Structure formats: structure tokens, C-alpha cells
Amino acid sequence: MTVGTPDLSRAVSHALRHEPWLYELELDQEGWVPVDQLVFALRERGGAWLSVDREALERMIEDAGKRRHELVGDRIRALYGHSVPARIQRQPMAPPERLFHGTAPRSWVQIQADGLLPMGRQFVHLSVDVDTAEMVGRRKSASPLLLVIDAAAAASRWVPFYQGNEAVWLADRVPAEFVARLG
């Protein structure tokens, strides 16, 4: 019996984003863990996980529709989505001019007052395109509110942005003055 890529991706995300201690893993300050430790932790769970190896992790990353994980040398990490208590360190980068965010319409009043906050995550998640923002927003509402972020202006005013992957950007928070309703 072999484990499917979506199942492996969910397990790896859980281990590297949310509860590494359940797998007896320790993330370094940038979220990396040794590949062999992750493989060992998954195999310890038994069943289909006994067949997990480095090649399975490489296939998982290669087959993913969205780049969620990164494997470099003998280390692997989740690129974004962390809810672990320890802060994952990222290097600020210049963002695209505009980014987008989808959310529930009921959140607008709070966003106008406080800006975009990470809520239960370490960072605010932003999309490079409207379609992705809408898809993310549908997790919170059947008719999501779409927001446009003036990322270039925010970055020029010392708001740090971090690249999650090619479609996802992260920020510690985005002040309300840089957030507008789309359309």
C-alpha cells in the first residue's frame, strides 16, 4: 500500500506548519527540518506511511498544483501557512505593485479600522491575482469581499512583505490605508 500525494501533502503540512511537536520535530528559525527526521516521523505512524521516503517527498512537491513546500539539500520546510507559536523568520522582498485578498464581507468594518491582520496565522496571506484571492475568500463566504492592496506604497512606508511562493505573498500586517475594496 502506498500513500497518495494529497494525503502526504496534508500530513507534511500538518507537521511543518501546525504541530511539529506531535511528530517530535523541531523547526529551525526559518521553518526547516532535516528530511530524514521528517521521513522517520512519518514512518513511525505505520501503515501506508512506512513507504514514505525522500523520493515520495520530492514527488509530492513536484506534483503539487500549488507550491506549499520546499526541499533543499537535506532540509524541507513549509513555505507559508504556519500557526506554530515560534515566529518563522523570513527575508523581506519587494512585492508586486498590487496584491489581492479575499475575505468575508462582514470583516470589512474591522479591516477598515485595523487593516489586515494575520488572525490565527503568523502572516497575512495575499494573492498575486484576483482569481486566487476569490478562491481563498470562498473559504469564508459564498460571496467573498475582494480587496486590493497597494503593496508598492505600503512597502515604501516600511511595511515588510515576504514571498511565500509564486502566487502567495505574506505580510506581518497591512495597515488600512493601503487596503481598498476591489471594484
TrEMBL record:
Question: Might you give the EC number(s) for this enzyme?
Answer: 2.7.1.-
UniProt family annotation: Belongs to the KptA/TPT1 family.
Record-linked Pfam families: PTS_2-RNA
What GO terms describe the biological role, i.e. biological process, of this protein?
Answer: tRNA splicing, via endonucleolytic cleavage and ligation
Q: What does this protein do?
A: Removes the 2'-phosphate from RNA via an intermediate in which the phosphate is ADP-ribosylated by NAD followed by a presumed transesterification to release the RNA and generate ADP-ribose 1''-2''-cyclic phosphate (APPR>P). May function as an ADP-ribosylase.
Known Gene3D superfamilies for this protein? 3.20.170.30, RNA 2'-phosphotransferase, Tpt1/KptA family, N-terminal domain (1.10.10.970)
Organism in which the protein naturally occurs? Aeromicrobium erythreum
Q: Name one GO molecular function term.
A: NAD+ poly-ADP-ribosyltransferase activity
Keywords of this entry: NAD, Transferase
Which gene does this sequence derive from? kptA
Name of this protein: Probable RNA 2'-phosphotransferase
